[in-house]
Specification:
The strands form two sheets. The chain has a five-stranded parallel sheet, sandwiched between helices. Strands 6, 7, 8, 9 and 10 form a five-stranded mixed sheet that branches. About 1% of the residues have low confidence. It is α/β, with parallel strands linked by helices and 529 residues long. It contains 25 helices and ten strands.
Length: 529
């Protein structure tokens, strides 16, 4: 059990197929990753996004002779070494990283490319076996923090237009269909300012010869103004539904493919393994970690691990996000208090003795934007999972349904093992808890402090606050209504009250809430940089 591997980077490319355990939609995801459309692969930490990207790369590389698609895998995990303030250097770093990996991938696939185009992609140097000029620039930019007063010359890095043209020429000259660019860690380690730059680059790179696929996380991804996820990409969600009949078998197979010697222990103690698998709520990494921590599958060990991991560690990891995303600290803290102190407690109480169990709650679509953002951050941490949008609640009102991480529900039980079987078998979405648009639990977070002077990225936020209300995701009537009461900027709307918004003709509580939510949503991603 000590040899269990939690992360995709621990596997060789040649091992990926051997350890792959597909869930219901994984093969369809791989098909789209291997295709020509722009894709955003969305999922919380540990659900298998990197594995699917790498497996797609491996299959395309293996089938290059028949498909003529060059797969290029790039990870941005070292972006944390770069300073957020220098946009030019960061864009140069991204392009240099991508170009270097493109050149290597072409060589791996045996593509003979025109020398002039390779020169463009290497920063003016040769290729075979050498460190290119762009590799040197990448290394210099990643090490620039050691010498903050020294600048790095980036003139050799090609423009995005030059990259597109060079790739097009290579594809035409070598009968290559296209390059599939797989970007991992695109929005996890990048600060919000870097994220916005990346998605601008992602849009700019798109061409008939370049298809970009990027792994992102719910809750902490800042797309910026120039990239609209629903229009500029296909959004694919990675998840394993613990309520499905095949779920436990899939999770067991994931473990046994890594360590077949565990088969006997799992078979003889199936209820204890199933409890850990249920608690993991579809996250293979979490299951592997908790299984390794339990060591032996006994009632005592499993109970201790569930309580320790889902009462302490998973919540601690979420709270620590406040250090990385300083502008979101208040949202992160409120989200934990809301989920841990309100939702989990009430669901657990309702489930006692009930024939139908629930792990679901519903948030009205007109709830404050800050509440929705806090829930997206909880989704990033894997504490909740979105389980449906435009779901009808009481009085046919619409909202979003979420499922609480089952481990969090089991952790508050005296005997989580038997409860896990009951929870898994009797789970019903019909008994979801509902939180209306003005629920008292929202009072603390309903209004955000958007004082730019107190923010670590004041310039970006101030620019956003000064932007016209015309940029808000509102109808023309609503924008005209805002202007009719003298509100011309996003910041002006945020400083107003809903009563002031209702001074406009035909604007009541519902429309005023929509206007305020749109203004808050427009600045939330800028609060952290």
């Amino acid at each position: 059990m000590d040899e269990l591997r939690y992360r995709t980077e621990d596997f060789k490319s040649s091992e990926l197929e051997e350890y792959f355990v597909p869930s219901g939609g994984d093969e369809e995801i791989i098909t789209k990753l291997s295709g020509r459309e722009t894709v955003l692969l969305v999922g919380s930490r540990g659900v298998g996004k990197s594995f699917l990207l790498r497996l797609s790369e491996h299959r395309l590389e293996k089938d290059f002779a028949s498909r003529h698609v060059v797969p290029v895998y790039v990870t941005f995990f070292r972006s944390t070494l770069l300073q957020a303030g220098n946009q030019i250097d960061f864009r140069a770093w991204m392009l240099a990283r991508i170009c270097s990996q493109v050149v290597r991938a072409l060589a791996n696939c045996g593509v003979s490319a025109p020398k002039s185009d390779l020169t463009t992609l290497t920063g003016g140097q040769g290729v075979s076996g050498q460190t290119t000029r762009l590799d040197e620039i990448v290394e210099a930019l990643e090490g620039a923090w050691r010498h903050p007063t020294e600048s790095v010359a980036t003139a050799s890095v090609p423009t995005v237009e030059a990259v597109r043209d060079a790739v097009a020429d290579i594809c035409e000259a070598s009968s290559v269909e296209r390059i599939n660019l797989f970007i991992d860690e695109a929005a996890h380690v990048l600060v919000p300012e870097h994220q916005r730059q990346f998605f601008t680059l992602m849009r700019d790179l798109r061409s008939p010869y370049i298809a970009v696929k990027a792994a992102v996380y719910p809750g902490t991804t800042a797309y910026g103004d120039s990239f609209e996820p629903s229009h500029d990409a296909t959004m694919l969600s990675v998840d394993r539904d613990p309520t499905k009949g095949e779920y436990l078998d899939q999770m067991r197979e994931i473990v046994l493919k890594q360590d077949p010697a565990l088969a006997r222990m799992i078979s003889e103690n199936r209820s204890y393994f199933d409890a850990l698998a249920t608690a993991a709520s579809g996250n293979p990494r979490t299951l592997l970690k908790t299984l390794a921590r339990a060591k032996k599958l006994t009632a005592r060990n499993v109970t201790e691990v569930v309580r320790e991991f889902y009462r302490e560690e998973i919540w601690s990891d979420h709270s620590n996000l406040g250090e990385r995303y300083a502008g979101h600290r208040r949202l992160i803290d409120w989200g934990r208090e809301f989920l841990e102190g309100v939702v989990v407690g009430q669901l657990s109480e309702r489930n006692q003795g009930a024939s139908e169990k629930s792990a679901f709650f519903w948030i009205h679509r007109d709830s404050p934007a800050a509440v929705k953002e806090a829930l997206r951050l909880l989704s990033y941490s894997g504490l909740v999972h979105e389980s449906g949008t435009s779901i009808k609640g009481t009085r046919s009102e619409l909202g979003t349904r979420y499922m609480v991480n089952l481990g969090c529900l089991l952790a508050v039980e005296n005997e989580p093992v038997p409860v896990s079987a009951s929870l898994r078998g009797d789970l019903s979405i019909k008994r979801m808890m509902e939180f209306g648009k003005n629920h008292r639990a929202y009072e603390e977070i309903a209004r955000l402090n958007v004082d730019a002077s107190a923010n670590p990225s004041a310039d970006a936020l101030r620019e956003r606050l000064d932007a016209s209300v015309g940029e808000l995701d509102l109808s023309d009537f609503q924008k005209k209504s805002l202007r009719s009461v003298g509100l011309e900027t996003i910041g002006g709307v945020l400083q107003a009250t809903e009563d002031q918004l209702q001074e406009a003709h035909y604007v009541g509580p519902t429309r005023s809430r929509q206007m305020m939510n749109a203004a808050q949503a427009a600045v939330l991603e800028y609060l952290s940089g």
